[in-house]
Amino acid sequence: MSASSKNVEPMLLTAGPLTCLLDGLTLNHIGWSGMPLVRMIYAAVRDAAWGTVDPSAENFVARQQGDRFRLDFDLLYRAAEIDMSAHVSMSGENSGELVVVFDGVANRAFDYARIGLCVLLPWRTYCGKPYAAALDGIEREGVIPPEIAKQYFLDGCYTPSIPPFTRFEARPAPGVLIGMQFEGDEFEMEDQRNWTDSTLKIYSTPLHLGNLHHAASGHRIRQVVRIRASLERPVASNEPDAMVRLEVGPRSGLAIPPVGTTWPRAALPSDDTRSLEQAPNLSHLRLDIDLAASENLVVPRSLPAAIELALWADAASIGRLRDVLAALGGMTIARIIVNDAGADVTPPDLILSARAIATAVGCEAPTGGGSDFWFAEINRSGYDFSEIDFLSFTISPQLHVFDNESIMESAAIQGLVIEAAKERVASRKVAVSPITLIARDAAKERARQAHETDPRHGDDFLIAWTAASLASAIAAGPLSLTYFDLFGSNGILRPDKQGSWSPTPVLELLRAIAQRTGQAHVPLVSSLPDAVRGFAMGSGHDLTVLLVNCEARTRKVELSGLAAPPVSQRRFSAGKLSRPAACDAAGQSGTHLAELAGHEVLLLECTGKP
User: Fold this and answer.
1) Burial label, 360 (beta-carbon count in 10 A; 0-12, 13-18, 19+)
2) Residue 39 — pLDDT band, cuts 50, 70, 90?
3) What span, in angstroms and rounded, lies between the C-alpha atoms of 605 and 582?
4) Runs of H (alpha helix) within 3-42
5) Neighbours of 563 (CB within 10 A)
6) pLDDT digits (tens, 9 = 90+) for 138-188
7) pLDDT score, position 48
8) Which of 74, 90, 69, 53 lies closest to 6 in space, CA to CA?
9) From residue 226, how far is each of 160, 188, 342, 394 by CA, in Å?
10) Is the peptide bond before 478 cis (omega within 30 degrees of 0)?
11) Which of 14, 121, 219, 428 is most buried, taking the most CB atoms under 10 A from its CB?
């Protein structure tokens, strides 16, 4: 097979005990004897600003010959100052060895942050497991951190979770050994759960060498990774059409948190009052106000929901908070989030100053902060946040990954990140604000510019990802959750033909959760949590159950442990806003059977005694 485009059809490749899926120009779901041990291998070029350069591809050739395979293709990386050509080969031998080679040449001189091969390991498989690594004949042994690893800043650079190596071995399960050999550079590991990725990343060019590198014209970068695994016995894999079984667990002791949305910073509070009519039934509306800006403060006269007041300030401008609170008058302030106008992490002293000002004018709203970026920034910080009311940060899955499957996998990490953040603040209270599908750009935020539009905001994938996010985040007991923009390019309101705003299914889903704020959270235990997961709200015979199919294929579901059978169901899809309807399938007493289409979300109402 040959092709001249990167749009290569997915294909399953095998070599001895080795299996993998070619998807695009990356190898995915790499396993040996039935056990998946590597999530992905790919080549990446990061420009001087750490932007990922999307290559064009040609001369693609794939050969599956008996019990071995080989892939070859050429890549051209061109963006801004970057101009680089590379040849990539990926081969699997009948012994089960996988060899990946990246051979690149700079077509002109340019600066870059990192270039080379990346190996992603699934966190569930490796975290907490023993490893051995070697560099220049020096051996090192240890345990891959089970908790989200911090990136300490030492000697002018961030530290990896596992220091540089050229040989790496791990034992992810009894009787399982995976070994990797690296050539062309030193490699090290970081914990990508800091950014809600679901993987541990092995990458080239260690951090202690700096964040900026120079390639002269003709400079060659050649890297090789060789991977082989041994298993004492094959591992049974799940059938694609296997029934997913979920069981209602005991109450977690947590409550459903307030759920709200954001007034987009690209719009002034008076830009479109029609949107405000759609905001009720959510717990709060985030409102960003830049105290550090030289312009006059623009504050709305009224809002139909409690305000999550997000400030951008510095020590010189925090005093303007008095004017903002006076202008907001009798409106309800749910909480105050303080972001540093000139830094990625907010100093606790700035947050405490804002709390003192609010208290002095009679506003008792809890005041917190942390970062308007990923949790990684907080986890890198040496600040002591113990005295603030709550810690806050944002969540967006699209920093390292952009495909549907990887983004969906990231939803499961959100709860882990919230749990880790709770350890940094004495109150153990964490507000996540906002959660967005597309990454937020700080410069555009400050300049009130709209972000790029992610086309998935109009399809079933966003609904499923939101539901999966809710299931993960709520199980960690957050103070509050804030999702997306209310309207705009990535909003959850859409203009209709009559010029009015219509709620999307995502907004309806968030409303359904917000209306149950304060109800008991009841976990669901899933036999295949990466396929179907969910949670319940309420108690006893009165439960509302949310189920989400995280996959693109149809899944059959058996839900057991119900004290009362579901009496109605509501399905969420991009095509229409479903209304409650009678349940269409039932099993034995205490169970419910359902079939979920790809990326479908189902809300079940169980009321009354059986």
Assistant:
1) exposed
2) very high
3) 10
4) none
5) 15
6) 999 999 999 999 888 777 788 999 999 999 999 999 999 999 999 999 999
7) 94
8) 74
9) 22, 15, 44, 37
10) no
11) 121
For 271, counting Cβ atoms within 10 Å of its Cβ (0-12 exposed, 13-18 middle, 19+ buried), the class is middle
Asked whether 483 and 490 are in contact (CB, 8 A), the reply is no
For residue 518, give the nearest of 256, 251, 250 by alpha carbon. 256
The tokens describing 480, both together, are: 């509050």
Secondary element (H or E) of residue 290: strand 284-290
- Confidence band, pLDDT 50/70/90 cuts, at residue 429: very high
Is residue 312 within 8 Å of residue 446, measured between CB atoms?
A: yes
Q: Is the pLDDT of residue 258 over 60?
A: yes
CA angle (287, 292, 297) in 5-degree steps? 55
Strands 130-135 and 138-143, bridge-based pairing: antiparallel
Angle at 497 between CA 492 and CA 500, to 5 degrees: 55
Polymer length in residues for the chain? 610
349 Cβ partners below 8 Å, 6+ apart?
Answer: none
Structure tokens at 407: 């983004």
CB of 376 within 8 A of CB of 351? no
Query: How far is the C-alpha of 577 from the C-alpha of 212, rounded, in Å?
Result: 49
200 in Cβ contact with 180 (< 8 Å): no
Q: Are strands 187-191 and 199-204 parallel, antiparallel or unpaired?
A: antiparallel
Give the amino acid at 154: L
Q: Transcribe 299-350 into DSSP letters.
A: --S--SSEEEEEEEE-TTTGGGHHHHHHHHTT--EEEEEEEETTSSS--HHH
How far apart are the C-alpha atoms of 293 and 390, rounded to whole Å? 25
The pairing of beta strand 333-340 with beta strand 367-370: parallel
pTM strictly above 0.90:
yes
Cα–Cα distance for residue pair 185/196, rounded to 1 Å: 27
DSSP 480-542: EEEEEESSSTTBSEEE-TTS-EEE-HHHHHHHHHHTTTTSBEEEEEESSTTTEEEEEEEETTE
pLDDT one-digit tens code per residue, 176-232:
999 999 999 999 999 999 999 999 999 999 999 988 999 999 999 999 999 999 998
Placement of tokens 């690149």 in the chain: 104
- Residue in 436, 568, 557, 559 with CA at minimum distance from that of residue 506: 436
Going from the C-alpha of 102 to that of each of 73, 183, 204, 234, 609, the distances in angstroms are 10, 10, 12, 31, 63
The DSSP symbol for 564 reads S
Tell me how crowded residue 248 is: count the other CB atoms within 10 A of its CB: 20
Position with higher pLDDT, 506 vs 294: 506
Burial environment of residue 518 by CB neighbours within 10 A (0 to 12, 13 to 18, 19 or more): exposed
Give the per-residue SS3 of 165-187. ECEEEEEEECCEEEEEEEECCCE
Distance CA 495, CA 46 (A): 37
Q: Average of pLDDT values for 516-525?
A: 97
Per the structure block, which two tokens stand in for 100?
Answer: 């990946």
Tokens (6 digits) for 357: 């000002």
CA distance 299 to 289: 8
Cβ pair 349, 372 in contact under 8 A: no
Question: Which residue's entry shows tokens 């970026």?
Answer: 373
Amino acid at 587: G
Residue corresponding to tokens 């240890």 = 142
